[in-house]
């Protein structure tokens, strides 16, 4: 962290992908909301979306098109079951994939859950100047993804570089 730079709060939307979660039992979505707010960011929107690629894309597209949303974080739908479709829904919307995110997430997860991490299809990318991170549905995965990867990259004070300082250049032609 650099003391010479000021923190820049971002507007972040959170999507819980689930056929069974409600606002009352959405622990992962609530955890993401509380962590981003504790870090000083603002919640732009939070929704629970059925594990259906077209419903996911509809909400994701709305947020990607909204210039007031700078970051989107999803939780859920990144596994291998027939209903897990978040990567398939999101990837066609991305302009660029941040390959290092999925690689680092699985590497960090390996230390906690061992070889089970190979079942994770966590991904990240950029769409229309908006950063998108897709995390597994467990609260632990959301906590680890935020605290060990995402939060530092969404903090302008992180050196030697961070995603915030790239934001003005994301839409360059």
Automatic annotation (TrEMBL):
Protein name, UniProt field: Molybdenum cofactor biosynthesis protein B
Residues covered by the MoaB/Mog domain: 13-157
Pathway where it operates: Cofactor biosynthesis; molybdopterin biosynthesis
SMART domains: MoCF_biosynth (SM00852)
Source species of the chain: Candidatus Thiodiazotropha endoloripes
Cellular component, GO annotation: cytosol
NCBIfam families: moaB_proteo, molyb_syn
Transmembrane segments: none
UniProt-listed SUPFAM superfamilies: Molybdenum cofactor biosynthesis proteins
Keyword rRNA-binding: no
Listed CDD domains: MogA_MoaB
Top-level division of the source organism's lineage: Bacteria
UniProt keyword annotations, A-Z: Molybdenum cofactor biosynthesis
One Pfam short name: MoCF_biosynth
Family named by the database record: Belongs to the MoaB/Mog family.
Function text: May be involved in the biosynthesis of molybdopterin.
InterPro entries found in the cross-reference section: MoaB (IPR012245), MoaB/Mog-like_dom_sf (IPR036425), MoaB/Mog_dom (IPR001453), MoaB_proteobac (IPR013484), MoCF_biosynth_CS (IPR008284)
Record PANTHER family: MOLYBDENUM COFACTOR BIOSYNTHESIS PROTEIN B (PTHR43232)
One GO biological process term: Mo-molybdopterin cofactor biosynthetic process
């Amino acid at each position: 962290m650099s003391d010479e730079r000021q923190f820049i709060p971002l507007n972040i939307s959170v999507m819980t992908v689930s056929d069974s979660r409600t606002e009352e039992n959405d622990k992962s979505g609530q955890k993401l909301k509380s962590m981003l707010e504790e870090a000083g960011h603002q919640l732009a929107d939070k929704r629970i979306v059925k594990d259906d690629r077209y419903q996911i894309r509809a909400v994701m597209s709305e947020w990607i098109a909204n210039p007031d949303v700078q970051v989107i974080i999803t939780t859920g739908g990144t596994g291998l079951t027939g209903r897990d479709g978040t990567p398939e829904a999101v990837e066609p919307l991305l302009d660029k994939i941040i390959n290092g995110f999925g690689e680092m997430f699985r590497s960090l997860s390996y230390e906690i859950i061992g070889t089970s991490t190979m079942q994770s299809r966590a991904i990240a990318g950029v769409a229309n100047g908006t950063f998108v991170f897709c995390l597994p549905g467990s609260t632990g995965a959301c906590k680890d993804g935020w605290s060990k990867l995402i939060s530092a990259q969404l903090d302008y004070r992180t050196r030697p570089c961070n995603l915030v300082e790239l934001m003005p250049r994301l839409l360059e032609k």
